[in-house]
Amino acid sequence: MSLSPTHRTINTIWRIESAKLIAGLTRMVRDVGIAEDLAQDALVIALERWPEGGIPDNPGAWLMTTAKRRAIDNIRRAKLRDQKYIEIAHSMDLYTEDDINQVLDGEISDDLLRLIFMTCHPVLSQDARVALTLRLLCGLSTEEIARSFLAAESTIAQRIVRAKRTLNAEKVPFEIPAGEELKDRLSAVLEVIYLLFNEGYSATSGAQWIRPLLCQEALRLGRVLAEIAPQESEVHGLVALMEIQSSRLKTRVNSKGEPVLLMDQNRAQWDHLLIRRGLAALERSRKLGRPLGPYSLQAAISACHAQAPSADETDWIRISALYEALSRVSPSPIVELNRAVAISMAFGPAYGLQIIDELNAEPALQGYHLLPSVRGDFLLKLGRQDEACMEFKRAAAMTRNEREQAFLLKRAAECKTEPL
């Protein structure tokens, strides 16, 4: 059954506001599990009321006020029997409209960074941190997260529940740490911000290929972190990467919302202010005198694209060398997949196909739609249309993003008309 326009709008608002809402509520109740429940309750009430009464002018503020009222109602129904709820009740006077706007526009944004540091606490495993991030900050469903982990939905659901319980049981503070504690948690925080950005840059599922607001929020958080930890080269490297990648957002889709590949984008429409900011951040990373880490190397790769006057003038040999360096610093099948693309552009599709065929047996890439998509592109360039068509169809069956699926099916159909 298709959703009504109002319900689709509410879903969009929720995807935009949910992370900020949960972060703000976590600051108040100091329990991320309770905060998520309160946010979900507010969403249910919105789904009941907004279709009849209309969507409020400030839906984020409405959701925040409703969630806070819900918390106070729960306290009253429980007759204040739980001391924790008593403390919450004493600290939770309802906002005026001006207060809400101030929180939504200002302080609550810092709450997102606090929430990231909280969910990146070492009491949680890496898998738990990633799952919780995708759930709370990216707004992905348990089913979508399970697909990205190639795991059962029940396993991911249990992982998320256990993570929230652990944070509560260990009384992990809702704060940005300082000194050595900040350094110890920095790598995990950078990973989370990177995940947030990537979900905005190429959405896992849904009707839109990009979610620019997620990219903007991740970039803002990265900039704040660079102020907090100015001597950490990889913070500047990640900021550089996000600045340069963000410069292309407007050209990643056409007027119909369809994907546009990097080589087909109008470079005149790239945001050159963001490119300059990204190059400056990359230079700050280099000036700290440490070997380039994975984020700085990826930023250097993005800089190669940003500085090329045209797609044909891209220095693919340098990009191939940078991917080789990245594979040594941070080896992964995804890096190898990207290296294959660079090799194919520098030396021909046959060389790239060799690498791809070796990756076919990689367990981590089973079910990953970009593997057959890239293979299909190489095959098409080699004049093997029928095989390319099958690979594009296979990739389309794997992705859960509607725009990307349509794009891949279109490429499959075009294989039949491509000249030899």
UniProtKB/TrEMBL annotation:
One Pfam family this sequence matches: Sigma70_r2
Official protein name in the record: RNA polymerase sigma factor
InterPro entries: DUF6596, RNA_pol_sigma-70_dom, RNA_pol_sigma70_r2, RNA_pol_sigma70_r4_t2, RNA_pol_sigma_r2, RNA_pol_sigma_r3/r4-like, WH-like_DNA-bd_sf
Residue intervals of the DUF6596 domain: 185-285
Residue stretches making up the RNA polymerase sigma factor 70 region 4 type domain: 115-167
Domain RNA polymerase sigma-70 region, first and last residues per copy: 23-79
The species this protein was found in: Paenibacillus radicis (ex Xue et al. 2023)
